[in-house]
Design goal:
Elements (H helix, E strand, L loop, with lengths): L3 E4 L4 E3 L3 H9 L8 E5 L8 E6 L7 E7 L4 E7 L2 H13 L2
Antiparallel strand pairs: 1-2, 1-3, 3-4, 4-5, 5-6
Helix pairs in contact: 1-2
Length: 95
């Protein structure tokens, strides 16, 4: 399955690997690169995941999981880029 990861700062990767996702997540900041969106290669994406820095007392990251076909819409938090990359890859491969 083909999918993309796009950053707010304009980086787009096709079929990102685990290491690619780790690099993108590590590159998130509070100024000009605050989120990543992972999605299929169609304009009217049926599903997507967004990853953003969780600006707050505890830090970490916020993930929004959306799949209208299964009515899934979940928001979670995670502390480590490794966990996020693994979860994102597992979720996309189920689509």
């Amino acid at each position: 399955m083909t999918f993309y990861a796009d950053t707010e700062s304009g980086i787009r990767l096709q079929d990102p690997t685990r290491n690619d996702l780790l690099d993108l997540i590590d590159g998130l900041n509070d100024a000009d690169n605050t989120f990543i969106v992972v999605h299929p290669p169609v304009d009217d994406a049926e599903w997507f995941i967004s990853v953003s820095k969780n600006i707050g007392t505890f830090g970490g990251y916020e993930l929004d999981w959306h799949d209208p076909r299964t009515t899934e819409r979940t928001t979670t938090t995670a502390a480590t880029p490794t966990t996020i990359a693994d979860d994102v890859l597992a979720w996309t491969h189920q689509r």
